[in-house]
Every structure is written in structure tokens, then in C-alpha cells.
Design goal:
The protein has 16 helices and 13 strands. It has 468 residues and is α/β, with parallel strands linked by helices. Strands 3-10-9-8-7-4-5-6 form an eight-stranded mixed β-sheet, sandwiched between helices. It has a three-stranded antiparallel β-sheet with strand order 11-13-12, with helices on one face. A two-stranded antiparallel ribbon has the order 1-2. α8 packs across α12. α11 links the parallel β7 and β8.
């Protein structure tokens, strides 16, 4: 049955990609389609749902299912049909390649107000260099060879201690698995805890990189609305009773910035316990909390080992470090370690050793204290300059969390229009709609952490001219 569903799915997708089903065309009703193909209606429905989750199809309530207009046909050439990548790849390879092509993380020069960029110029390079120079030759020799796939033991121990102090998480060093950032951690989760066709609850709006990772492994992504208390799990769970996993950003929801309430956290944990499901806590910027009261990690609550905590140093120290981690239940550590070894064997040993000492000697703590103060100043500067440059049209509310602010607008405004004009003016302004699946949220996201006041002021003036 699983192979038949996959065949129907691939046949439909190829029809869309090659133009057999033109953009905007209406698919036949599922019963009729099933009769033509000689399969059950459920097989067709499974394939259609998966194509909807991947963006190939759009369902209109009471009207049918249509081919999304963003799916152009594959055109031929004067010398015959064009050979495209998907004709050369395996079925699994096609899915990964197609999904990856629709997630394009920003690279190159970081224009204000691009998200996720820390104050890289404030990184304590001198301290890092000194720690590198102090590395004993014997340690360098060991680090230059094959090391433990789970990570450098001193680094795993340092992270475990750091999590207890900073995020309230009690775990052993043996539960910490070092990864090449949070994306690899999510990739391991999808590979080891999900099968093709499994349903996963995700925040809507939410981070596209999470959705892309899951879809590439054949999971069916199910959007759950977000309100002022975080993911509306009580609303989403009844709609998708077979969901095996939920991915959340509870400390500082991405992209809206709301923290998940205690009541909502308890409901989510109870859902996972009752359904034997998993929760992935993406703590992408949990270290940047500026108030006196810090929100603890979801993983710090009693949860019957159903929460996997994913962390990264990309926001605190820089994405170029390529180090993150995942806190696992004891029962999963060995399987995840072996899977990590299959993909890229290990993280660079020398870098892990320096980071372990950087944390253990208190440099990370001191660096983050400086960054919290700096980011609060930059946030205030951005709010001021935007309000002034736009004559109050963009009045952002200050926040005690994170590295960006969200500005929502209602009505039928197309937030992508202003984003395009801003890009032409040298300003990166992410539209909230680009993070949505079914949600109709509109507005823009303003990253401030990686830009000094002069850059923020210039960007605000350029944006103000686009509003005029």
C-alpha cells in the first residue's frame, strides 16, 4: 500500500512539473481520479494531501483542488525534451532536491533588517585566538583525527552545565549530542522518529527551514495557528489525531515573538504524553532575554522524556562556527549518535575543544551579558528611527526577548509589495506572509541585533521613502 501511494504521488507531481496539469488547473474529484487510476480513494487523497503540504496544490473549500500557480512546467528545447535533475535522481533524491529548491536561506551581505544576524563584530576574537594558541599539542593531535561522533566530551559536559544555569535544564553530558547547527539536529529527528506520511504539527506562521526539513523526509506538515500564548495545540490536536511530532519555538515564537504560556506548555506536554508523540523545542535564541524574569526552557518541565531540546551557537557566536546540539532522552542517544556518524562523522575537534574552554572559563556568559545590553540598545534605536522616518506609521512595540521585532497589519494588505520595494532600496524586510501556510497573518519582521545605530537609521530612512 505504501509503495502504491508513493507511485500515485510521484505520477501526480510529475504531471504538474511537466505541465500535464497546468498551473491553475482543477484536479478531477478524488473518487473519479481513483477510478481512472484503479486505486482506492484514500490512496489518491494521501497523494493530494502531500502535494498540498509541499505547495504543488491548493485546496479551495467547496470548490475543489487546483494546481498552484507557482509551479511552472518543465519546457522542452529545440533538440527535444529538456533533461532536468529530477529525471536523474532517485525518488527520495527528487523529494529532497525539490524541497530544498523552495527553501532559500539568505546568504551574502546582510542588509538591515535581515533576521538572525548577531553582532559579529563584537565577537571576542582575541579571547578565542588566545584559547586556540593555548591548546596543547597532544589535544590538537587527537582533534585532528577521528573523534567521537556524539561530540567532544568536555564540550558536552560544558553545555550540560550551561543549560542548567541558563535554561533550567537538568541533563547529563551523555544526553547532549553535538551537531552542525540546528538544521542537522532537525534532520536527525526527522530521519529517526518519522516515517514517510507521518503527520507533524508546526507553528503557522513558523520557520520555513523546519518545514523544508520535514517535507524532504516525506512527512506531512500540519499547520497549527499561533496566538498570544503560542501554538494553539488544543485547536490543532483534534484536527490531526495521528500526529507523531510537534515542533515549537516556545521561548520566543518565530516569527511573531510571543512566549508560550505555562498553561499552553502544560497542554502541549500532556498531548505528547497521551499520544506517545514527541516535542521538538527549537530554542534558537533563548539566551537573549532582557528582563529580570527569564522564561525557562520547555525541556526543563516534567515531561516524561517526550521533549527534545535543540540549541545552536549560530545566534550567540555566529553561524560560521557550525556547532549546535540536541538534548536527548537516554534511550535515543545511541541511535542518534550512529545516525550522525553516517551523515558527516563528527564536528571539527579543534573547534569543539576551544568552545568547551570558552564556555567553562565563563567567556560565553560574559559575552552574552554584553550582547544583551547591546541588543537592547539597538532595539530601542531601531524603534526610534523607524517611528521618526515613517511619521509613526511603523510604531514597533519593545520586547524583552530575541533579536527581531514583528509588526503586524490587518486587512488585505499585500506585505510582499513593500518588501520588494525595500529590497530595491537596499533594505531586507521579510514579509510575515512568507512564513505562513494557512494563516492569513500579514506584516513585516525587523532584525536589529547585527546592525549598529547608523545602519539602522539609514535603513529606516530608506524604508520611510518607500512609504511616502
Amino acid at each position: 500500500m505504501g509503495q502504491l501511494r508513493q507511485q500515485v504521488y510521484l505520477r501526480l507531481r510529475e504531471g504538474i512539473e511537466t505541465g500535464v496539469f497546468a498551473a491553475g488547473a482543477r484536479l478531477p474529484p478524488s473518487r473519479e481520479h481513483a477510478r481512472v487510476l484503479g486505486v482506492s480513494r484514500n490512496t489518491v487523497l494521501w497523494a493530494v494531501e502531500r502535494l498540498q503540504s509541499e505547495g504543488y496544490l491548493v485546496a479551495r473549500v467547496g470548490d475543489g483542488t487546483y494546481v498552484a500557480r507557482r509551479s511552472p512546467p518543465v519546457r522542452g528545447t529545440a533538440h527535444g525534451p529538456k533533461i532536468v535533475a529530477h529525471q536523474l535522481l532517485s525518488q527520495r533524491g527528487r523529494l529532497i532536491a525539490e524541497t530544498g529548491s523552495r527553501w532559500n536561506p539568505a546568504t551574502g551581505e546582510a542588509l538591515p533588517f535581515r533576521l538572525g544576524r548577531p553582532a559579529l563584530e563584537a565577537f571576542p576574537f582575541a579571547i578565542w585566538d588566545r584559547l586556540e594558541r593555548k591548546t596543547p599539542i597532544a589535544t590538537r593531535v587527537v582533534g585532528a583525527g577521528y573523534t567521537e561522533a556524539a561530540g567532544h566530551p568536555p564540550l558536552r559536559a560544558a553545555i550540560a552545565q550551561w543549560l542548567l544555569v541558563s535554561r533550567g535544564i537538568r541533563c547529563d553530558a551523555g544526553q547532549v549530542l553535538i551537531t552542525a547547527g540546528s538544521q542537522q539536529a532537525l534532520d536527525l529527528v526527522a530521519r529517526l522518529l518519522l516515517d514517510v506520511g507521518d503527520e507533524v504539527l508546526v507553528e503557522d506562521p513558523g520557520y520555513p527551514g523546519i518545514r523544508a526539513n520535514l517535507i524532504a523526509h516525506g512527512a506531512l506538515v500540519r499547520p497549527v495557528p499561533v496566538d498570544a500564548q503560542g501554538m494553539c495545540i488544543a485547536q490543532g490536536a483534534p484536527l490531526y489525531p495521528r500526529a507523531k511530532l510537534a515542533v515549537v519555538t516556545p521561548t520566543h515564537q518565530f516569527p511573531l515573538g510571543v512566549p508560550m504560556s505555562l498553561a499552553r506548555r502544560s497542554t502541549l506536554i500532556e498531548w505528547a504524553r497521551a499520544n506517545r508523540a514527541w516535542i521538538v523545542e527549537d530554542d534558537y535564541d533563548g539566551e537573549f532575554q532582557y528582563g529580570a524574569q527569564r522564561i525557562p526552557a520547555l525541556c526543563s518541565m516534567a515531561h516524561d522524556a517526550r521533549v527534545l531540546h535543540v540549541g545552536t551557537f549560530s545566534k550567540s557566536l555566529g553561524a560560521g562556527l557550525r556547532l549546535g546540539f540536541i538534548v536527548l532522552p537516554d534511550e535515543l542517544v545511541d541511535a542518534f549518535t550512529r545516525a550522525r556518524a553516517l551523515s558527516d562523522r563528527q564536528s571539527p575537534g579543534a573547534v569543539q575543544d576551544v568552545l568547551a574552554r570558552f564556555i567553562a572559563e565563563g567567556h560565553l556568559l560574559r559575552h552574552l551579558r554584553r550582547m544583551r545590553e547591546l541588543y537592547r540598545e539597538r532595539q530601542a534605536a531601531m524603534i526610534h528611527h523607524l517611528a521618526r522616518a515613517t511619521n509613526g506609521a511603523i510604531a514597533l512595540e519593545p520586547s524583552l526577548h530575541g533579536m527581531h521585532l514583528a509588526f503586524e497589519v490587518g486587512g488585505q494588505i499585500r506585505d510582499t509589495d513593500l518588501s520588494r520595494r525595500a529590497q530595491a532600496a537596499g533594505v531586507h524586510l521579510a514579509p510575515i506572509s512568507s512564513y505562513c501556510i494557512a494563516a492569513k497573518r500579514r506584516g513585516w519582521l525587523f532584525g536589529y541585533a547585527g546592525y549598529d545605530e547608523a545602519a539602522l537609521a539609514r535603513a529606516a530612512r530608506a524604508l520611510g521613502q518607500q512609504l511616502g
